Amino acid sequence: MINGIDAEIMKILQKNARTSNAEIARKVGLAPSAVFERIRKLEEKGIIRGYHADVDPRAVELGQLAFMFIRSNDRPGAVGTAAQLADVPEILELHHVAGEDCFLAKVRARDAEALGRLLRDRLSRIESVTSTRTTIVLEVVKETVELPIGAGEHEDEEAASA
User: Fold this and answer.
1) Cα–Cα dist 38/42, whole Å
2) Alpha-carbon distance 85 to 87, whole Å?
3) CA of residue 71 relative to chain centroid, distance
4) C-alpha span between 11 and 5 (Å, rounded)
5) Fewer Cβ atoms within 10 Å of its own Cβ: the N or the C terminal residue of the chain?
């Protein structure tokens, strides 16, 4: 269970993982050593899984974003296709989904031509892949990795006071 102070620490780190322990301590009202210990415990428990740089995809020539629905002929519970798809560097996220398709992939490529090559030269060579449907993103309106920690608490408080 996450308490309120740990939730605040995680919110701060999600916005800027380079925030100093002293700054976090000032914001949450604890000593820097207590903040350090709380962060260490959150890391040990696997709640905080890592720290990452947010790189502009266009700056590294990966401006084309697409989502792909991928079908395979794997039997239920098989992991072969998932493992092969997960090894494709252009696939940033891979989700096993319910419904007609088996997987939903978030993909980044240089442009539509590079996306076509990915489909033709890489994904079509995975024998268990039977079909793909690709949706090209025209504009990213919102993209974040920040989880809405404690977002539902305000709604619960408002409902209780009404």
Assistant:
1) 6
2) 5
3) 22
4) 10
5) N
